[in-house]
Design a protein that fits this description.
heterotrimer; A mainly alpha (about 240); B mainly alpha (about 500); C mainly alpha (about 120); A: about 240 residues; 8 helices; about 70% helix; B: mainly alpha; two-stranded antiparallel sheet; 2 strands
């Protein structure tokens, strides 16, 4: 009975949006309205103003850094909400509780792979301003390595390696790090989250330590995302 | 001093981050939350003083001027809302200390404080956003946090209500994001001021896209603010949460969607051709539906908190209707009603919480003669109910008066009539509650129970006192808001 | 006419279809996990739409080597990439939280079916 109204609704929305799209700017055009002076400014001036080649990272961590702070907060909120829901559930009734695997090959291979994954994750975090990547991508890779550890060695041993309390503290500390960097801008006499405008040295273009506050924020976000993934997985696996 | 505009959201965010770091033991989480909300209130009060002189703060985060960077805009409208929201929050946090601690396990309790602060940060961020995507991000913060404080309670109905709310607000988020991307596609801007200048040209070349975008945004924010007929998540969500959580959700959180839509209309769409400006008329029709059907549903409820939740659907209708009149007097009434409803509904849910805390009674029928056992609680409940109905000398009367006056001034007697009719309906479900509470005879002679502890009682009575003061001497507030309303409507 | 216009905007059409498939899944399926999957499909549709707006034929990814006025012509729109990144993170957060509620509900009620949950409650 709920199929027909849903279908009607979806068809109606489809019709409206199809009508909309027939007059929308064509796909892939070079002269569409979205390619205006705002986008031009980012691409033309960013290398001088923020001093890093990766324009997307510059937008995320500098021009629109306030949005990214909100984004980190959304992650924090999700961890908080999930932790509050799952607090003390300890995998009671889950049909197949998560346990360590006995597979020797899996254990040895993952032991070998995890350090490399982590090094790669750190690389993606710290080089995020020079090449594709950044705090979010790198943090996810770092978190992924710990997810592999969790799946192979089980939640108990993971909790011994990274106590849940640490995970939570890390979560809050990394998120607060973002605020601290932002307040640094205020202390230096500019606005919240200011980078070059606050006189933060941008360093030499193309080098590892360049981009000023972008680099610091990226590092914090990397830690934050890794902590988030570990916390979420540990809670979902039921070892709290 | 301009930094206060950004600190308004950064302070509660930092507080939320502090809780898992420093608030791990005992009642430290509570202390962090209380301190943070106090600071936020002070910050909002300072902003109110600055903007009350008629000067809005435009803050460029990171010194990047729009359209490249993000602008935060705090005017008298948002400063006043922020201040009153923080004030309600103060009462709710103080109340929570005793009520929540015995219901939640330590881990959930810790995150409860954190989520409450995140909810506040999201709401303040929404009310000061002047950038479409920034608005979206803060909308998501407050939505997730709102679901979170429902689901901290380890009960099946809370979990189910939270999940329903979460999935629906994910649909709303999808609509909002699609709307934002359609607008960006035809204008290339996200900042409000730049959108306002770019939009008329975009309407000329692709009117359907802009219309679809506006419709999607209205649907998304309408869903988040429980605009009829998108209110189906609200009664479950608000009645199954912990009482202090219900107070902030019902009193404050549902307003965020209204504030967002209104700011969007006032600062972006009002400069566009008439097709786009038809949005308020459409919202008004839905608002009237909410006012009538919400009232009918509220009358049939047997559970006190569910009745209060349906009453919220009605009040949201009032605010949407008064906004859609687009007259400064009605707008003053609408802004005042946002605040009055936050105070009154907050107080009503907290009083319901006091009753549930002491007696465990949730059903309206069981509340016969409760006023004799808990007179102070019942006084608060009475002030709340009278304010909701709009009896003279209560703050609810002041806001409804302005709404009706504004509608008549704008030549829309129909809107005024609906507001009056719906007030009559409210009397039908609030008066029996008050009469039964004071004059009813309890079915069984109840054992003598004292009032709730003072630490829970005074926040409720404090809210009641603020409501009464606002009702008896409304002029200072009305004057400030009248100026803000004229400014918002560009008059 | 309509079909030709739509054909030139195939990316947009595909993303709208994904959006609607997701929405339909969320509305019609009783299984909670499937609802969450629908939510993700819906959001993916929006991200595809955002990325498509930013793309222009023959442009490069926005890792720039030198500044100057001609740079704006040869790269894709970086702002939309940034927005999509934020959107993805928000979607992931929502999914993780929804799944944790679902785990808890399953523990308490032993079912993932909305209709049965409704029955259990009343």
């Amino acid at each position: 009975m709920r199929h027909l109204p849903a279908l009607l609704l979806v068809v109606a929305i489809a019709y409206v949006l199809a009508l909309t799209l027939t007059e929308a700017p064509a796909f892939g055009g070079l002269d569409v309205p979205a390619r205006n002076e705002v986008m031009r400014f980012y691409l033309d001036e960013e290398l001088d103003q923020a001093g890093i080649p990766n324009t997307v990272t510059a937008i995320i961590f500098d021009y629109r850094a306030y949005d990214t702070m909100g984004e980190a907060t959304v992650l924090f909120t999700a961890v908080g909400a999930a932790a509050a829901v799952l607090a003390g559930h300890a995998g009671k009734l889950v049909a197949r509780p998560m346990a360590a695997t006995d597979d020797v090959i899996l254990r040895i291979v993952s032991r070998m792979v995890i350090p490399f994954v982590q090094v790669f994750g750190i690389y993606v975090v710290v080089y995020g301003h020079l090449s594709p990547g950044g705090g979010f991508a790198g943090g996810t890779i770092l978190g992924g390595s710990m997810a592999l550890y969790l799946f192979v060695f089980g939640p108990k041993r993971t909790a011994r390696k990274i106590p849940p309390a640490w995970g939570e503290i890390m979560e809050g500390a990394a998120a607060f790090w973002y605020v601290l960097v932002g307040l640094g801008g205020v202390l230096l006499g500019a606005n919240f989250l200011a980078n070059a405008a606050a006189g933060v040295p941008l360093g030499v273009q193309g080098q590892l330590f360049s981009g000023g506050a972008i680099w610091l924020i990226g590092l914090g976000v990397g830690v934050k995302v890794a902590a988030t993934i570990v916390n979420l997985l540990v809670h979902l696996a039921g070892e709290t | 001093m301009d930094h206060l505009a950004v600190l308004l959201t950064v302070i509660p965010l930092s507080g939320a981050f502090f809780v898992p770091m420093f608030g791990r033991e005992g009642d430290r989480g509570y202390r962090v939350a209380l301190g943070t909300v106090l600071l936020t209130t002070a910050c909002a009060a300072a902003l109110l003083v600055i903007t009350g002189r008629g000067q809005a703060i435009s803050y460029y985060v990171g010194n990047w001027a729009p359209p490249w960077g993000i602008e935060i805009r705090v005017d008298a409208f948002s400063a006043f809302l922020s201040f009153s929201f923080s004030l309600v929050y103060l009462a709710v946090i103080a109340y929570s200390a005793r009520d929540v601690s015995h219901e939640l396990n330590p881990a959930a309790l810790r995150w409860y404080w954190s989520l409450m602060l995140l909810l506040l940060a999201g709401l303040l961020g929404v009310s000061s956003a002047a950038d479409l995507f920034n608005l979206f991000v803060f909308t998501e913060i407050y939505s997730l946090a709102a679901c979170g404080i429902i689901s901290v309670r380890d009960r099946m109905d809370s979990l189910e209500a939270a999940l329903k709310y979460l999935l629906l607000s994910a649909v709303a988020a999808g609509c909002i994001l699609l709307g934002i991307s359609l607008i960006y596609m035809v204008t290339g801007h996200l900042n409000y001021a730049h959108l306002a200048t770019a939009l008329p040209a975009a309407v000329a070349t692709s009117p359907r896209t802009v219309l679809a975008a506006v419709a999607l945004l209205a649907t998304g924010f309408g869903l988040k603010s429980a605009l009829f007929p998108l209110h189906m998540w609200l009664p479950d969500a608000h009645s199954s949460a912990l009482s202090p959580a219900s107070a902030v959700l019902s009193g404050i959180a549902v307003k965020a969607g209204i504030i967002a839509l209104f700011r969007l209309f006032a600062s972006v769409l009002s400069a566009s051709p008439a097709v786009v400006r038809a949005m308020p008329t459409f919202l008004a029709v839905l608002a009237v539906g909410g006012m009538i059907f919400g009232a009918l549903f509220a009358m049939t409820q047997t559970d006190l908190k569910r009745m209060l939740a349906y009453s919220t659907v009605v009040q949201v209708g009032y605010i949407y209707l008064a906004f859609s009149v687009l007259n400064p007097v009605a707008l003053t009434g609408a802004i005042l009603h946002i605040v009055n409803h936050a105070l009154l509904k907050g107080m009503l849910f907290l009083s319901a919480g006091l009753i549930i805390h002491r007696t465990g009674k949730r059903r309206i029928a069981d509340l016969q003669g409760i006023g004799r056992e808990m007179p102070l609680t019942m006084i608060a409940l009475t002030i709340g109910a009278m304010g909701m109905v709009g009896i003279p000398l209560t703050n609810g009367f002041v806001s409804k008066w302005h709404m009706v006056l504004g509608s008549l001034e704008a030549g829309q007697p129909l809107a005024a009539g609906v507001i009056l009719l719906s007030s009559l309906f409210s009397a039908l479900y609030y008066f029996p509650l008050v009469i039964a509470g004071w004059f009813g005879n309890p079915a069984a002679p109840a054992p003598a129970r004292p009032e709730a502890p003072p630490s829970m009682l005074w926040p409720v009575l404090g809210l009641g006192a603020v409501s009464l003061i606002l009702g008896i001497v409304p002029e200072p507030v009305v004057n400030v808001l009248g100026e803000a309303a004229k400014h918002l409507l560009g008059q | 006419m309509l079909s030709l216009d739509l054909f030139l905007r195939l990316n947009y059409l595909a993303s709208i279809m994904l959006f609607l498939i997701g929405l339909h899944t969320m509305l019609t399926h009783a299984n909670l996990i499937k609802k969450v999957m629908g939510m993700n499909i819906m959001e993916t549709g929006i991200f595809l739409f955002l990325v498509s707006i930013g793309y222009a034929h023959g442009t490069l990814s926005p890792i720039i080597r030198q500044s100057g006025p001609e740079q704006g012509l040869i790269y894709t729109n970086p702002l939309l990439a940034a927005i999509v990144l934020t959107g993805i993170v928000i979607a992931v957060s929502t999914t993780a939280y929804a799944l944790s509620i679902i785990i808890k509900l399953y523990e308490q009620c032993g079912t993932l079916d909305v209709d049965r949950l409704e029955k259990l409650r009343s």
